[in-house]
Specification:
295 residues; 2 domains; Rossmann fold; 16% strand; three-stranded parallel β-sheet; globular; alpha/beta; six-stranded parallel β-sheet
Amino acid sequence: MPNSPLILSGKAVSAAIKEDLMLRIKKLAEQGIKPGLTAVLVGEDPASQVYVRSKERQSVQLGFKSIVMRLDASTTQEELLRIVEALNQDASVHGILVQLPLPAHIDDQLIIEAIDPEKDVDGFHPISVGKLVLGLDGFVSCTPAGILEILRYYNIQTEGKHVVVVGRSNIVGKPMANLMIQKRSMGNATVTLVHTRTPDMGVHTRQADILIAAAGVPEFIGADMVKAGAVVIDVGINRVDDASLEKGYRLTGDVNYEAVLDKVSAITPVPGGVGVMTIAMLLSNTVKSAENSLK
């Protein structure tokens, strides 16, 4: 009889988080505070534009003061630094989001480090990353934070489990591994991190109780790389050409969903899984920053 895995819906988790945020936003309003999120978009990158529009729409729905600054691709690094500094000084702005990637003539890391760590709702500033590694309270990178919330919502235990993370990016892989080893709820796991230079990756992924795929390669993880009964978290969102569809493409994850479906105990879909959680956690971080401003 085929296995019927639990489908881990990011949409359901996101909706629950937003309900909680609405209560917190109401309390802030009683103290005269409206969460302020300013996104800065430099250039015409299509994926970035879609992402920023979604962030803007959802933040407005929750009652944020939401501003998007759309800048020409020719904006200089010095101009962008001045804009970031002005936002740092603006008390009505609780979250600053400079959408990556930036044009080639601008140093991404320099801009990230220019953002006030108290307003770093993306969780990319070295101070935020340092707090994460040390287990201190701070802003956690939104995608890993969203994955934790999915696991918590569906009561998937991490303590004593073997978690294998595929990918070592600063945005997902590294912070995810650090979160999983923390000595706290939704942590206490044994973590293996594999990447493009790991020989025979399947040796490691087949040991995973929880497999987190953030490789950025369409359908990279097949059935032969997954242990029976594993929980699979698919971070990838890849656009793959498909002439059979009217729009000419389909979205797929880093996991071959159909191939592993009968083998796993739980899995996130693409779309509708981790992707929607990233924005939910950005909104959550902004509300947290607004609450911190009262302290």
